[in-house]
Specification:
Blueprint (H helix, E strand, L loop, with lengths): L2 H23 L9 H19 L3 E8 L5 E8 L4 H15 L1 H30 L1
Antiparallel strand pairs: 1-2
Helix pairs in contact: 1-4, 2-3, 2-4
């Protein structure tokens, strides 16, 4: 399947996540708006733990020669020392948390509007 055909579905998926975040954030219960950011935070932690627990990558290549002989190659790469593993884990954590930050910004904007409306309602009641 061509990637061009998948792009509209990917856009609709992310638009649905944003709309769901807005709906959850506008709810009276403030904890509902934190569900999606927490899910994405857990996904980022799983990515970092995956890098930490499995620092080496093994790739298998199967090559068929003109004679029909199959040649198997196993390539194992390691990240090197602990410093490069730490840098890789930190970069992965920050990259995986981009959606978390976006969803938290949506949450903060929606909650700010709710608090502003609550203060205006309180002022209206006091004016009566």
């Amino acid at each position: 399947m061509s990637i061009i055909l998948l792009i509209p579905f990917i856009i609709l998926f992310f638009a649905g996540i944003v709309i769901l975040q807005i709906v959850l954030s506008k709810n009276k219960n403030k904890w509902l708006g934190l569900i999606l950011p927490m899910v994405f935070l857990l996904i980022s932690l799983m990515g970092v733990l995956g890098i930490s627990f499995y620092p080496t990558q093994t790739t298998q290549m199967h090559t068929v020669t003109e004679n029909g002989v199959v040649i198997d190659k196993v390539i194992e790469s390691s990240p090197g020392d602990a410093g490069s593993l730490l840098i890789t884990a930190v970069v992965t954590f920050f990259v995986y948390n981009i959606p978390t930050v976006i969803l938290l910004l949506i949450y903060a904007a929606c909650r700010k509007n709710i608090k502003k409306n609550q203060r205006l309602d309180k002022m209206k009641v006091q004016d009566l």
